[in-house]
Specification:
Elements lengths: L17 H10 L1 H7 L4 H10 L8 H20 L4 H7 L1 H7 L9 H8 L3 E5 L2 E2 L4 E2 L9 H5 L22 E7 L7 E6 L5 E6 L2 E4 H8 L6 E6 L2 E7 L7 E2 H9 L4 H8 L4 E4 H7 L1
Parallel strand pairs: 3-10
Antiparallel strand pairs: 1-2, 1-11, 4-9, 5-6, 6-7, 8-9
């Protein structure tokens, strides 16, 4: 696939960005950020480009733009600077900035079309998680974290994910890499494993799946010969916004607002300026 160059600045011809791009390539992101004073709207297209494919529908990418903006402003509201937030993303951003003078404009359009829009819960900015493909139902935040703080993350139907060619996938792991006894102890209502027992030791499901390189914690396991076969549903942690499921809604004609209402029922879409004005 052709490499893409994702720009920081919406609406500026790429040729004008060449000096800035060379600053990033040769001197690093820190120097580039010092030479410019970034703001959230300026940087948002680059941030979105790290999170979602440009091949998705515009309304899906607009949904991701609102999520990304909400997460950025939440960190800023917690006294982090945008400079430090972007510096945390430095390694990924620098891998993304590859020379190609024909960038996709879909990220810029998504940011512009949703300018200032964020999701709030009871007047507050919250962490808004997202993942690639759910197991057919997203997870309940309060159940997963055992904390009412995450009650705004409701479990919702996302059956459109089942259409994905990557909805089901298998991973095989050699028996010598596995504990002698592996037992699934508990699952949440969406089918994701909450806790396992490995040779009598408790393991958290999401930590196990990440450590073993599995696509999700919604899996079954079977020993076949000298290997264990993990059959996983979906890709990612299953909380919040399912990008594939959201894209199926977009294909069916849903707007970004309708998509966000589906995945975050009870949350409100507001302009960030109205929220910060109240503080």
């Amino acid at each position: 696939m052709k490499n893409r160059l994702y720009t920081w600045i919406t609406g500026i011809p790429v040729i004008l960005l060449i000096p800035y791009l060379f600053t990033i390539i040769f001197n690093g992101l820190d120097t580039a950020l010092v030479n410019r004073s970034p703001d959230v709207e300026t940087c948002l297209p680059a941030v979105i480009s790290l999170q979602i494919s440009p091949d998705y529908e515009l309304e899906t990418i607009k949904s991701q733009a609102v999520i990304a903006r909400t997460n950025l402003y939440r960190r800023i509201d917690n006294n982090e600077t945008l400079f430090n937030i972007l510096r945390d993303m430095r390694d990924t951003l620098q891998r993304t900035y590859e020379i190609d003078f024909f960038p996709s404009g879909v990220y810029e359009k998504a940011a512009e079309d949703t300018k200032g829009q964020v999701l709030i819960w009871q007047g507050e900015l919250k962490l808004i998680p997202y993942h690639q493909i759910s197991g057919g139902t997203t997870r309940d935040g309060e159940e997963v974290f055992h904390d009412k703080e995450y009650a705004y993350l409701k479990s919702v139907d996302s059956s459109g994910d089942k259409k994905s060619p990557e909805y089901l996938n298998s991973s095989y792991i050699a028996a010598q890499q596995m504990p002698k006894e592996l037992t699934i102890e508990t699952r949440d209502k969406a089918g994701y494993i909450m806790e396992l027992s490995a040779d009598g030791n408790p393991l958290e499901g999401e930590a196990f799946r990440q450590g073993m390189g599995l696509s999700s914690a919604n899996f079954t396991v079977q020993k076949i010969g000298d290997k264990f076969r993990f059959l996983c549903k979906g890709k990612g942690h299953g909380l919040g916004f399912s990008q594939y499921g959201g894209n199926e809604l977009a294909k069916a004609g849903s707007t970004s607002q309708e998509i966000l209402e589906t995945y975050f029922p009870g949350m409100e879409l507001q302009d960030i300026n109205s929220i910060f004005t109240k503080k």
